[in-house]
Amino acid sequence: MAKITLDNLAHSYLAKPESEDDFALKELNHVWTDGEAYALLGSSGCGKSTLLNIISGLVHPSQGRILFGDVDVTHASTADRNIAQVFQFPVVYDTMTVRDNLAFPLKNRGASPEYIAKRVQEIGAMIGMEAELDNRARGLTADAKQKISLGRGMVREDVNALLFDEPLTVIDPHMKWELRTQLKSLHHEFGHTMIYVTHDQTEALTFADKVVVMYDGRVVQIGTPQELFERPEHTFVGYFIGSPGMNVIPAKVNGTTAEVHGTSVQLAKHFGKLDGKVELGIRPEFVSLTKGEGLPVNIRRVEDVGRHKIVRAELFGEEINILAPEGQGISPDMNRISFDQDHVNVYVNDWRTEGKAA
User: Engineering a disulfide at 244: which of 92, 163, 321, 327 sits with its beta carbon 3.0 to 4.6 angstroms away?
Assistant: First the structure.
């Protein structure tokens, strides 16, 4: 297991990058704690797989260093980094049995037959393939083969880190939940440093101790699921985390008052006079439909999803989402909204700004 330090790290796939826009991975300086589980979360093309491949040694960075503990591994081979990596699509040896596939990394490192047999049996049970251990991998379904890949990645207990690159893409939905739970259990049991790449917020939030949100080649926030939900440091984090995502509303802010199209909204903190692109960020959970007071909205439709209702409305020509309790009646005269002041975030040029006590 290892603490992973990313020191002044950046990467461009161009031979001679001339500007920041030429970098697929923009400069990073982060320390990831030994033994924690991290999820790299972001949309396609944001740089998360590039970062994972740099950590694994499949890609050498254009600048900066990677340290495992106190050892600089920037130019070390993948084998020398002592990591295990599971890819998006299954990589198995078709002519081998499931048992031999799982045992392969241990045999390569000279583990005893007794330990190999015990460990393979444990992993086979974890991935739900005890009954298939003596079957050849050829002819198995794609999701069964990916379970073998996951098992082979997890069979070693002595690795510095376990890296997962969207490993559940080909797994059926029920098995996804089960395998995520088992990965979490494995992490608690053995304390490996785990890094899990995904574009699925549910996978990230249920798997990781800390979620690393990436946008346009940059890490915009590292935090617990609660921190990402309550205090998104960037508007992308608010938009990407949550269903529906955070509402972002253009505003003018001066002191403890925000002005939205001429209507005043009181804020819980003092922000002074803000310049630039100023916006309020309010999650749908903290927006309430009211009568007579607040910002005017036009309700477009109401979606009843069982636990609550999602109200799709229009605020000064822009869509806004409101979560209403399942039992709440919604009448035509409920055409105003108010915000829970304690949960209004203020952003300048997409980055959250912290106010002072009012």
Answer: 321
Phi, psi of 10 (to 5 degrees): -160, 155
* DSSP code, position 191: -
* Total-model pTM: 0.85
Listed in sequence order, the residues at least 6 apart from 138 whose beta carbon sits closer than 8 Å to its beta carbon are 94, 95
Across all residues in the chain, what is the average pLDDT? 90
Amino acid making up residue 341: Q
Q: Which domain holds residue 188?
A: 4-236
63 and 121 assigned to the same domain: yes
314 lies in the same domain as 192: no
Tallying the residues shown for the chain, one arrives at 358
Same-domain status, 225 and 284: no
Q: What is the DSSP letter of 233?
A: S
User: How would DSSP label each residue in 263-315?
Assistant: EEEE-SEE--B--SSEEEEE-GGGEEEESSSSEE-EEEEEEE-SSEEEEEEEE
Residue 26 is predicted with a pLDDT of: 94
Domain match, 96 and 214 both? yes
**Residue 50: CA count within 13 A, CB half-sphere:** 25
CATH number of the domain that residue 337 is part of: 2.40.50.140
Domains held by the chain: number:
2
Task: Select from 193, 210, 236 the last residue of a domain.
Answer: 236
**163 shares its domain with 286:** no
Whether the CA torsion 87, 89, 94, 97 is positive or negative: it is positive
Mean per-residue pLDDT, 323-337:
87
Unique residue bearing structure tokens 């740099």: 54
Largest interatomic CA distance in the chain: 76
The residue out of 236, 263, 295 marking a domain boundary is: 236
3-state helix, strand, coil in the chain (%, to 5): 30, 35, 35
